[in-house]
Design a protein that fits this description.
single chain, FAD/NAD(P)-binding domain, 2 domains, six-stranded mixed β-sheet, elongated
Amino acid sequence: MSFQRSPDVIVVGGGVIGCAVAYYLACEGVRVDVLERGEIGGEASGAAAGMLAPLAEVEDAGPFQALCVESLRLFPSLAATLREETGIDIEYLTSGILRVALADAEERRLRELAARPGILPLHWLKAEELRAFEPALSPGIRGGLYSPEEHQVNADRLVQAFARAAEAKGVALHRGCVSGLLTRGDHRVVGVRTAERDVAAGHVVLAAGPWTGRLAAPLGMDLPVFPVRGQMMALPSRSAPRHIVWGSAGYLVPKANGLVFAGATVEKVGFRRRTTAAGLRGLAAMASSLAPRLGAIAPVDSWAGLRPGSADGLPLLGRLPGWDGISVATGHYRNGILLSPITGRLIARSIIDGSPGEAPAPFSPARFPQRED
């Protein structure tokens, strides 16, 4: 493991968030080292469906929805820039999302959402309109809400593009495990400790997904970040929907490679990243309920990832309270792919400017009370 002699910033975590932070710092001329214990994008980032869906987790207007939409609008230019810089096509597909209703209560909820003034356009489709628009859907679907501006990317390609573009700008990517943080007596973090050596840096960013809380704990910080397992499967695209289809029990995402991703479970089972027979049966049933012909098709692959959840469902972005020289970027839950560019930009700017700025304020780690010494 060969580090730059004195990186300005060390980013701990080589998922989409860590690589995005490194990329945007490097765009500003900052010397960055990234430390990833496994493969780049090898955890939740590489397991994601790649949806860019600001309305997925929150339907009411507010700071989080605004942050998600702002990040969504970065993707057209980001896709072009990353392709120019790396040759990697992140497969930004403007497919739109159909949210469908199989029951009365879900139909009422979606109709109410369609009637609200919102930040993104939404169109209610009656059952007959929906089936003309998307013939593969189940005849039991009562109607659907079409969101034409929510799209998708290839999650793994996005991570690799961020990483390669960062490397081209001088970022050093290392495989290794951080065993601790180096501190100075005045509540300042001054680097990281690895199995091989101590590495000094002007600033450390913890972007290690659900493991971020463990890294911050020796500083006396109690960050309510935890793993949420999501199982997924890939199906051949015969008779599959053309658009992303989202129901109350899961979603179908037709990908550019001819597969359909079906996901995803939501399981608080600790750090156990594996698929289960029960989880995969549930995904198959969900896929069949949305597009019946998929029910007769055997999956070609299945996998699981550990998303970083948080106590209030919002990401933790910015400097750790009471400490200098350290920031966190975690807790993105199911929105890590979507929020990667805005997170990278905000964390980079906060480090360069020396202040958190206005945008991350609702997502500051300081919103959580800390234990008394």
